[in-house]
Design brief:
About 45% of the residues lie in helices and about 10% in strands. It is of the alpha/beta class. It has a five-stranded parallel beta sheet with strand order 2-3-4-1-5, sandwiched between helices. It is globular, with a radius of gyration of 18 Å. It starts with about 20 loop residues before the first helix and ends with a helix.
Length: about 200
């Protein structure tokens, strides 16, 4: 069964753009318009909690809304390893490969956790096939591809061959706008938070 794992609430509309993430936001949008063309893979890196996962899901939601005939898959890299280990046990690795080859967009979160060597071998082959078929790959990590530890050099060189963009910590105005957006998304109209409280938070 094909499950894309895209979270509906993470869209481009709900993403707050600031100086810290403008480049990553633009790059994420560009792969929606021109998949497999210029930024392949798109590698988004930065510390935890700065919106990398949000951008992956936003790409997925955009594709589902605007290109429903295209297949998109979001997968957390540890889940990918688990999926492959199960497939090796059950001798269904070829089925997993076929499922992944069928997608137009492969969105992989936290690639730094792809430590398992057999998984890296299988992933390397999948990656090459997807790229040669002009399928779009988007990867996130907490560090730049060249700083990844425990990931094979041939994978690192592949990750570095596309566009790498960073997401930094938001400056004051962006951080405040993110807070306001989060409060608005709660949908609680009785909740009134004054400006000075927001500034303090």
């Amino acid at each position: 069964l094909f499950e894309d794992k895209i979270k509906k609430e993470y869209t481009f509309d709900s993403f707050v753009v600031g100086k810290n993430n403008r480049e990553a936001h633009a790059a994420a949008l560009s792969v929606c318009y021109y998949p497999g063309k210029f930024n392949n893979p798109l590698f988004i890196f930065g510390n935890s909690g700065l919106g990398k996962t949000h951008l992956l899901h936003a790409i997925g939601n955009y594709i589902k809304a605007n290109k429903p005939e295209e297949k998109v898959l979001y997968i957390y890299s540890e889940d990918f390893v688990t999926l492959l280990i199960e497939a090796m046990k059950n001798k269904t690795v070829e089925d997993v490969k076929e499922m992944i080859y069928s997608v137009d967009y492969l969105l992989i979160d936290d690639i730094q956790r792809l430590k398992q060597s057999t998984s890296q071998e299988i992933f390397f082959n999948m990656y090459n096939k997807l790229i040669s078929d002009n399928k779009q790959i988007v990867i996130t990590s907490d560090i730049h591809p060249t700083e990844l530890k425990g990931i094979e050099n041939r994978l690192i060189s592949r990750f570095s061959s596309g566009l790498s963009v960073s997401v930094g910590s938001p400056e004051f105005e962006t951080a405040k706008a993110i807070l306001e957006k989060k409060i608005e998304n709660l949908g609680n109209t009785d909740l009134v938070i004054t400006d000075d409280v927001l500034d303090f938070m």
